[in-house]
Amino acid sequence: MTEKEHLYHILKDQFRRHAEPQVVDIYKLVYQISFGTGHLLEDEAEAKALLQEEWEHTEKSPSGEALIEVIDPLDQVIRINLRIYKKVGGKPGNLFDLIVRSAQLFQKDPERLMRYWQWITEWAEDPEWPFAKRELDRFWIEVEREHFPPKHHSQKYVDAHRPSYRIVLKRLWMAEVNHEKGI
Prior knowledge:
Elements: H1 3-17, H2 23-35, H3 44-56, E1 68-70, E2 77-81, H4 82-87, H5 92-105, H6 110-123, H7 133-145, H8 155-161, E3 165-169, H9 170-180
Antiparallel strand pairs: 1-2, 2-3
Helix pairs in contact: 2-6, 3-5, 6-7
């Protein structure tokens, strides 16, 4: 499967899992796999406190939520869902260490973001695609003017899914799991 085909399948899976995504939610996903989440670590103490607070207020997981979500067609970046991670005995300090190491090693790739958005726009020709080309183009003009900032999920997405995850490099996650013989 090509990178383009794999991204298409990942997005279709996201649409299936997360009904009614908004354009900003798709941008957030391709931003995360293109730029990582280093921007969240500009203040490490605050990022750690936010993770701890989210950890303490983690709710029961929705049915079908997986521990890991593959979001990257190159299989380098994954989402770790906090509710499941906590449920299986994961520790927030271990996860935070993975987040920090991932941010340090992440290779930002603006061309990837542009390539993926171009493909997403091409797929708008498909009547089953949830976004119109015009809507995608308008959004792109806006984020381009803002120099491609990170974005939050849409309020619709937050209300429907209560996202609670962190982004890490898959190779670091796998090394940690293999080292710990679990989580």
